[in-house]
## 1
Amino acid sequence: MKQTFKRPKALVDIPSHFCPGCHHGIIHRLVAECIDLYGVREKTIGVASVGCSVFLYDYFNADVVEAPHGRAPAVATGVKRARPDNFVFTYQGDGDLAAIGTAEIIHAANRGEQITVIFVNNTVFGMTGGQMAPTTMSGQETTTTPFGRDLKTNGFPIKMSELLTELPGSTFVARAAVNNSKNLMKAKKLLKRAFEVQINGEGFSFVEFLSACPTNWKMTPKQATERVQEEMIPYFPLGVFKGGQE
Amino acid sequence: MAEAEFIKGNEAIAMGAIEAGCRFYFGYPITPQNDIPEYMSRHLPDVGGTFIQAESEIASINMLLGASSTGARAMTSSSSPGISLKQEGISYMCGSQIPGVIVNMSRSGPGLGGIDPSQGDYFQATRGGGHGDYRTIVLAPHSVQENYDLTMKAFDLADKYRNPVLILGDALLGQMKEPIRRRKYRKKEFPKDWTMTGAKGREKRLIKSLYLSEGELTDHNWMLNKKYQSMKREIMFETQFMEGAKLVVVAFGSVARILKSTVQMARDRGMKVGLFRPITLFPFPYAALDKISHSIKNFMALELNTGQMLEDLKLSVGHKKNQVDFYGRPPGSIPSPDELFNEIKKIYKKRIG
Ligand SMILES: Cc1ncc(C[n+]2csc(CCOP(=O)(O)OP(=O)(O)O)c2C)c(N)n1
Ligand code: SF4
């Protein structure tokens, strides 16, 4: 019998710590599939951030260095400048990238660093227990917006892809979701392009993934996936913002 | 031997770094160390190196973390407020055992303070500086030549111990010009079996500071502690006029530099004053001072702060019936050899007669 579904070589065969219904696992898998597809596993240097994805280094069968919270794009800059022939990616949550690490991502993109950034937007700080993130939706209840995010006092959910698109230094910017098979297929396509941008030396590539956090959203996996479709996608539109297919 | 050249202190650091094989520099401008990034931006391209003016000191230290994690020789420099911002990154580098050279041409604080020479960052430098129980080797040059030589040495020490090394200078050491002699750096090889190069033909590697399993972090910290202890073999210090000395003045960096003239003045006037200058501030030469204190009873710390290295001096010699006196001055002006002489004379009179 032909095996149609197997673990990518770039992933280690161990159980993950992600909650049931969490999209981090799916996004890990997509990244690993692309590493396999382009045959770059032996050239890959991953930069892990601080958040629920901190154990990236356990799951990926590749070299990984840990960055302080928010600083992965700066660490990746140092790595890539020192090893321009390696494939360098960061994997960051929305607290990591869009709050504490805003300066680092903007300037890495603006310098056109030849790195690939995987940005996981789940509208909360997952690891620390579901506090408000810069991406938290209007009215969304979190442990630090118990009455819902009030735009007047908490500001607006930040659209990082749109922001980075404006920077002349960025080459490829896209937003994807993995909430259904159609979006998953599209997501893979966008991610492939992001990989190619780095592999071809075209510049900085960025893919934002809308991601479910059933635990902190206090939802079942099914409800959480529906929320991605119904609440997140209308505000965070999917697609390529910059640098589509060569 | 190379001809003597007239060089600015900051530039000597940059020259020493490039000679020692530093090929990556990341920094953010701040007075009084701007000659370092300026020199690096001009000269690193000649040797195929990379200069990045980062968006902040935080980004700079993390770029250093990244470049050093690949085994490359890399450096960042800043001055006091910027060094405060780098502390989280330095802590991660220590926890992850990533080498790297960090220069603090310190200025005065607290806060924005001023740009005068100051030694107010001694505690920050020698006690780790950031969060967690860690140490960095701290080298304290007192001349432009030493800026050059110790920067070269810093790269070797960083690689040898897989630990950041801090060079602690100040505005005086950065701005003054002195003749120096350049020398060829003799390349040393260090194991690179931990670096990020891509898992080609080998197991994957990871560099991290997070340890969550039962007992793991305790073991990790004991291992680091052992390493910090082993750094004692790198202790460096200089002494002058110790023969027959009745009072030993202890100072580092720019103050020690000024004191050399002062101690000469004292000796010329028949006062038996000796000079002890720690060159490594961590590890501090506790044992050497302790040994001296068996024959000499009077010590005096002189610093451009209100008493920081003083604590280490007391830890070295204060447990016996020794006298430990202190003259310090917070930033604002640099003491002249004459002023220091008057302070030493007061203590000498009181303790020796
Ligand atoms: C300097 C610093 N501040 C705060 C924290 C605590 N912290 C850890 S993860 C995190 C946020 C994680 O949220 P996110 O980046 O959205 O990732 P997720 O866990 O949702 O995947 C915070 C605030 C830290 N580790 N370091
Ligand atoms: S807390 Fe949320 S983001 Fe973190 S693993 Fe669980 S579901 Fe995923």
## 2
Amino acid sequence: MIKLIVDTLLSQIRTLWLVFIKLFQKKDTVEYPDQQPYMFPRWRGRIILSRDPDGEERCVACNLCAVACPVDCIALQKGEMEDGRWYPEFFRINFSRCIMCGFCEEACPTNAIQLTPDFEMAEYVRQDMVWEKEDLLIEGTGKYHDYNFYRVAGKKIEGKDKGEALNEAPPVDVRSLLP
Amino acid sequence: MIALFYIAAIIAVIATVAVILQTNIVHGLLYLILSLLAVAVIFYVLGAPFAAVLEAIVYAGAIMVLFLFVIMMLNLGQHTRDQERKWLTPRGWIAPSIMSAILLGQLVNVMRQIDYDIVPAQVGVMEVSALLFGPYVLAVELASILLLAGLVAAYHLAKTK
Amino acid sequence: MSLEIGSPLTIGLILLVVIGTAAMLITVERRLLGFWQERLGPNRVGWFGSLQVVADMIKIFTKEDWIPPFADKFSFVIAPGIIMSAVLLSFAVIPFAPDIGVIDSNIGVLFVLAMASLGAYSVMLGGLSSDNKYALLGSLRAAAQMVSYEVFMGISLLGVVALTGSFNMREIVEAQTDGWYIIPQFIGFVIFLIAGVAESHRLPFDIPEAEQEICAGYHTEYSGMKFGMFFVAEYIGLVLISSLITVLFFGGWLGPSFLPPIIWFFVKASAFIGFFILMRAAVPRPRYDQLMSYGWLFLLPLSLVNLLVTGVIILSTQ
Ligand code: SF4
Ligand code: SF4
């Protein structure tokens, strides 16, 4: 009994002391706006639409990202240029719904949609959280510099016929039996 | 000091009447506490600070808290208030108040005849204790034995097997 | 007008200092808790966060003061007022320095105990009138806790009172010229410390308002300045307990004469305020039944034995 009381007392005093000396130790706080934390490149933050190395829009309006999005916050409309390339006529992300899960980036076949380490996106008006294509599209390639979808894909556009893409075999004429 | 006495006395009387007339039991208890505190002030004015403070600590501070504690558990609502109101019919209160009025008259009559001084000498803690443990030690001990018996009994009743 | 016991100037100054200290404590406590949790605490408003209290005040004064329609309005409104006036009235008998104080009362210690027991009503009425389950649970706990710990608080003080032979706080301080009562009354001091924390229901004994269990306990339904009064009254209670410990066990204003007496008082009281905040940062909250059985089965016998031994020693040395 006496031992229990003494032990309890000593352990409480030890606790008090250990907490007290924290007064003089280094603090863990990062004083955020004054002191910017290091953001890792793979951080999943604000979403951008990138361009390919030639400066054209990467997005081909395939809608895969909109399908993958678990909260359905991506909306887009397909358009087609004269040279055969597809592009989104509008591309809209509602950031007040987006949960920054990165599924859209995973789904995108052209590396067009990418998440960036920027997280400072607060707004006073909710409507301002809906970003249009003009807001999303950047003048660069984002995280993947050399990738150009139309250069490797089999899709025929002006100036690149079937079979002329990178690593692509010439098309087989299925109506001919000759080797 | 005399003014303080009269103010406290008036408050005590009004509060006590309010205790009886209140239909909301919590408000009634509050008035009762107020009345006890007013009586404590009267004690103080009359030169018994020790009794005044004990009145505040024991009656207003401890016993009334326990009353309130019990009321908390009872879940009283509108229906108890209606019942209280039903009890407050003239048929219920006329006879007792006539008798109380007669008592009051007698009290006033008696008090008019004696010659009293409203601020007697101060009775300090020392004097009270000397009296309690001198001439009245038997009463104090008996009272404490009674309380002890109550404590033991309450402990046994509350103890679960 | 001069600075003497009971002059209006003194009373006004004491009120100002006490309420000011309590308001400052809101910030100081948050800073200190931050440090003790390896954080920085609020440091944005003003110089190192010193104006945080102004910001808090503005916020709390301009908040909507909402009385729930199902509450018992009369009790709901007077509850915060009761605790505020009870703790402030207790300062009337505290001797701050030889010539600073409100009254020089022969029943000082008892008066403080009486006010502490009246403070229990505020907590109980607040919880009862809110008509909210959490609030009711909180006030049930508060009632049992405060009534129990008042007992030990009173008995632990009696050793000091017996040594002095008076309930007068000034005489208690003056009797400590040859040695503070912390040495002969160490056990009384420890019990008073614990009971004091329980009386002002601060962590680790903040069971009536334990946020993690019952929301905010008895002041769940309070908002705006009514909540603010509960909040500030808790800090005034903290200042009160620290001042009481200083007066009763640490010689009040006594100290080497290179500092004026009032400064000695403030230094000692501040040290205890700091200690209470440290307790809040370090010690976890006990369970409710643990608190009660600890009080009745351990503290009560201990304080009685302490009182008995003190009495025997006083009588045998006379
Ligand atoms: S990050 Fe997730 S939630 Fe946001 S747009 Fe992409 S798929 Fe939708
Ligand atoms: S961003 Fe990618 S996945 Fe979404 S529509 Fe454009 S190409 Fe398809």
